[in-house]
Amino acid sequence: MEQIWVIMIIHKGTHYERSSHVTFVIWWPGVLKSGRIDGFTSHVDLFSTLVELAGSSMPEGQEGDSYYRVLTGKERAPDTAIIEILGNTALVTKDYKYGMYRQFRETDLYDSNKDPDEFYNIVDSTENKGIVKDFTEYLYRIDSTLINEYENAQVVKELPDEVTLSHGEIVVDIEFPYFGGRSFVVNTSIKSTEHAEGSLLTYYEGPHGF
């Protein structure tokens, strides 16, 4: 819920820090030493890690990497992580977070040191062209399907902050493009009828219209 007030996103399922970053605590007295490890891991790695900690072997084809050697101090933690959620992909490093929206051909880049709350998308900054190029190529190597889906995706119209509806009017995403989680204002002009009952405004989930 915290991200609602910080970045005005009304649901989870994003790669924003307040949605995707959670604390990972593991406790096993006598086996794992106490302390803190600076680095990245992912939910997809938890099963693999627990399987190895239990002394078993991984099922064939199971996704995820075991962090057993990291937890036991035999290896350093990775300095990058990948977030994949609701068709979107993001690369996380110590200094930046770079996201690619494969459905809409949109990207964003945040400086994690200067902008930890991720208010300012700096993906179009001239000085960041090299970073964007390197990160894009990195994600393409990780997920080959991303190349075709992103390059052939529809380009989203500029999203308005509000929409105005008159009595009986219908608007769908052709005129008012939808982008999940973004808040906006709906202004309406409705004629009241004596003793009338029913909804004043209805949201159509299929076409994302009102």
Describe this structure as you would to a colleague.
The strands form 2 sheets. A 4-stranded antiparallel β-sheet has the order 1-2-3-4, covered by helices on one side. It has a two-stranded parallel ribbon with strand order 5-6. Helices cover 20% and strands 15% of the residues. It has helices at 2-7, 17-20, 46-53, 68-71, 129-142, 145-151, and strands at residues 80-85, 88-93, 96-101, 106-111, 162-165, 185-188. The protein has 210 residues and is of the alpha+beta class. It folds into 2 domains: 2-40 and 77-151, Arylsulfatase, C-terminal domain; 158-210, no CATH class.
Topology of this protein?
Blueprint: H1 2-7, H2 17-20, H3 46-53, H4 68-71, E1 80-85, E2 88-93, E3 96-101, E4 106-111, H5 129-142, H6 145-151, E5 162-165, E6 185-188
Parallel strand pairs: 5-6
Antiparallel strand pairs: 1-2, 2-3, 3-4
Mean pLDDT across all amino acids: 80
Please give the radius of gyration in angstroms: 22 Å
CATH C-level of the largest domain: Alpha Beta
| Total beta strand runs | 6
The 3D shape can be described as elongated
Secondary structure: helix percent: 10-25%
Largest beta-sheet details:
4 strands, antiparallel
Helix tally equals: 6
Q: Output the strand order for the largest sheet.
A: 1-2-3-4
CATH architecture of the largest domain: 2-Layer Sandwich
Please state the structural category.
Answer: alpha+beta
**Residue runs with pLDDT of under 50 for 5 or more positions:** 1-5
At the fold tier of CATH, the topology name of the largest domain is Arylsulfatase, C-terminal domain
Strand content: 15-25%
Span between termini: 25 Å
Work out the count of structural domains.
Answer: 2
* Order of helical and strand elements: HHHHEEEEHHEE
